User: What shape does this take?
Amino acid sequence: MHVSDLVSLVGAKGSDARLVAWFERHGLGKPPVSVTANQGTKCLKDKRHEMEYYFAFDIINDRFYPPAAGLRGGFACHLQAVLLFSHRRKGNVSLEAGFWQGFIGPDASFDECMTFFDGSMDAYSDSHLFRKPLTCDTELKLWFCPRKQRVDSIQVSIVQDREFIGYRAFDPANIHNDVKPAVTLVVKWLFDGRHLRLADEVYADGLSDDHAQILDFVRRHLNGHVWGTQLNDDQALRQVLSHTQTSRPLKLAGGQSLDVFAQTLYLRAGGVWDAYQALYNDESLEDWGSAVSSFRRSVTLDTYQRQQFIDMLDQACTQVRAALDERPVSV
Assistant: This one.
């Protein structure tokens, strides 16, 4: 067994013959072939080698996205990561000679880590995280404890992006989304502000504020999602964008809060926020859920109101940038 063997398996489907054979060879049973949304991930432990295999379906990497249907209502899963080493108080097992050859091992010093990872490190208060790409889809991660001057854990995993808006938000068949045009107007805001990393010719073609046309644009130019690598490196932009997808307010320094939830902005732009709040708080309704959903689905914005929606996001970005100039925004 060598690190490279495990690197070659990361990303494999649970049903992959190579992975099945590997598990059989090391007495690990059978790898899972599906994971449910409630489970999120499945972990199988290799007690003999003190390793852990993590299987997942919701992997933020275009090679594995969007998730595919699996067995019994679950999703087809892939080997998302393998924990190669984790420091244990009572000591760790000794792996066979040559396992770490050509890689960094558990006995590495801080200076050796800096050399192996070419100085690529994220420093946190109680840990240093080193990362090194191994293939286009996999990376090696090492956590180093600065206080105890030791390697805490080593993992090989699929390289993942940061998801701001996922494929479900753009799914016309998503019955849980009553205000579907709100998310496409967020994309229109990103486009109009040139916040997306797109070619000049794409921007030159322009983008209308029509819901169906924006959905087509997302499919053709954004692979059906909005992820961190598709955005300009703008902290204020990312703070605002992340909060368009949650009802949790964005808190600024000094205690001020901004509500930039896309659904809320949509209803405000439509001039129906007060009426919606009255309905939402009406405890006398016999079928409250249906009444609230029907109200949200009934709202349609005209051209002027759609621009108001975009302007509200611009104003929020301006406020966040001003706050960041003074002190960081708490998330």
Remarks:
- The mean pLDDT is 93.
- Residues 114 and 136 are 22 Å apart (CA to CA).
- The longest strand covers residues 78-86.
- The chain has two domains: 3-158, 163-326.
